[in-house]
Amino acid sequence: MTVKACLFVLALMCASPSFATPIVSVSPRPGDPLVANGSFHVDVSIADAVDLIGYQFDLAFEPGVISLDGLATEGPFLTNSGSFQTLFSEGLDSPGTISFILGSLFLPDTVSGSGVLASLSFIAAPTGGTSSLTLSNVQLFQEINGDPLELFDFSTVNGAATIAAPTDTTPVPEPTTMLLVGTGVAAALRKRRARIAR
User: Fold this and answer.
1) CATH number for position 158
2) Which domain holds residue 135?
3) What is the DSSP string of 2-41?
4) Per-residue pLDDT reduced to its tens digit, 121-136
5) Does a structural domain hold residue 95?
6) Which residues lie closer than 8 Å to 134 by C-beta, 6 or more apart?
7) Count of domains in the chain?
8) Is residue 125 within 8 Å of residue 38, measured between CB atoms?
């Protein structure tokens, strides 16, 4: 290969666009309190998407620690395309899993970048604890040359929701209160003995 050919190939490699690998992640919404008996949201997000037209995923969680409060709601990411039409399925609920959450645009609309795909509302159990948040059956669809094709080069990041255990709110008597109660009991006993002695 000549020097000119090597330089041409090198120039083509440098000129071709290089995209980061998309990442689909799940985590509790920042700022939502994770407390026993409290409600909070979990967001499924994507980062570094390019020409995305659709997605699908399942989410597993620990039903003894958190319980689903309704089905999934569509996040703002797909609507950022400016499209007025999106297709969204809120999923199917079974103990510890919500399945077949999906969202889609209609070609030729696509969206690139990062954002929230879907949100889920949960209620924490009264005991607290930690629930894993595990994504499975994740599929991403990308527009390539006018056709929707499944994207296989992406990664997923699972999360967890750690619910603070309830705090004991039973008031503990102060030492001076105990002294007053003790003095009152002693006085009552002395008075009773005096009556019995008469």
Assistant:
1) 2.60.40.680
2) 18-163
3) -HHHHHHHHHHHHHS---PPPEEEEEEPTT---BTT-EEE
4) 999 999 889 999 999 9
5) yes
6) 26, 59, 60, 61, 158
7) 1
8) no
The structure's pTM equals 0.73
**What distance in Å separates the CA atoms of residue 66 and residue 125, rounded to the nearest whole number?**
6
Residue 4 lies in a domain: no
Q: Distance of CA 99 to CAs 21, 40, 69, 139, 154, Å?
A: 24, 20, 15, 12, 20
CA 161 from chain centre, in angstroms, equals 8
Q: Is 174 helix (H, G, I), strand (E, B) or coil?
A: coil
Q: Is residue 126 part of a domain?
A: yes
Residue 110 included in any domain: yes
Mention every residue, 6+ apart, whose C-beta is less than 8 A from residue 17.
none
Side chain identity, residue 108: P
Q: Determine contact, residues 135/55, Cβ cutoff 8 Å.
A: no
* Residue whose C-alpha is closest to residue 41's, from 14, 66, 11: 66
Contacts of residue 87, defined as CB under 8 A and 6 or more positions apart, other chains included, come to 54, 102, 103, 104, 105, 106
| pLDDT tens per residue across span 74-94 | 889 888 767 657 888 888 888
